Every structure is written in C-alpha cells, then in structure tokens.
Known about the structure:
Number of helices: 4
Oligomer: single chain
Radius of gyration: 14 Å
Helix content: 10-25%
Distance between the termini: 10 Å
Strand content: 25-35%
Amino acid sequence: MSQSTVSTPDISDELGDNARVVEPGFNDFGKRRRFSGRISTVSCPDDNSLVRAALETPGEGRVLVVDGNASSNCAFLGDQMAVLASNNGWSGVVINGCIRDSEIVATIDIGIKALGTHPRKSLKRGLGERDIPLRFAGVEFRPGDYLYADRDGIVVTAGPVS
Length: 162
C-alpha cells in the first residue's frame, strides 16, 4: 500500500488511542505528500550507511523510519538516495534528522518527512542497527507496523487501515 486514501485525522478518529500519533515537527520534502506502508527501521548515529543499504533493497511499498537522534550535524538522505528509494519501490522515508538537496528531492516521486535540512553529508562508517523498534517523537515504531503520513501528520498503527 503506497498511496493511502485514508487521512491521518480519520485514522486518529477511528482508532482513538490505538492510533499512535507522532508529535508535530516533521516537514514534507518529497513529491508525495501522502504515503503509507509497512514499517522498516534504521537507527544510525550521524551515519547513513544503513539507510542506503535498506533503500537498495526492494521497498515493496514500505516506509523506512530512520532514527538519527534528531541530529543537526548532517543529512541522512539526499537526492541520490531519494531516487534510489523511489526506483526500488519504497513508499516513503521518515527521518528523525535532516535531509539535503531539498529542491531536487521535492521533484522525486516519494514521500519524505524529516525535521529539516543540512548541507553536510553524513559519515560512512557502517554504524547503526536495522529493523529494531525505535522510539522518538512520542511514538514507538515497530518493524511490520503501518505508518500513514499526510500534510496533517504521521500516525502509526499495529495493522493496515482501509
């Protein structure tokens, strides 16, 4: 499921406390303003090596959630990785951190939400972990759960919503 027609306010209304609503603060950067899919995760400290490794795999409509610890030291994704994600069938990427190449990323057919922008690229040391539960912005992101994003925000659910 890459393009949900269900809005995050509708999901929140329908599921109440069973909808995990992400705290505000994430901005839209990709061409898609509405995206959804099963969650895959990466935790990485100022190092986007595992982000690239994840986006090199078939996305199958999933959403990659990246915990960069809200770092303002570097960007975790740029235009080349956004193209890679789009070409490999990822629905979107949510980054607890920054991106770069924002003007180009805005033209790429993928959903991207991040805290902001930064011109510096990340380190490449292979640090981090993949497909582990993450916690930031008041929500736990578990691999296999579902994420829904639109202009109103981000909601995480245990299963798909129709």
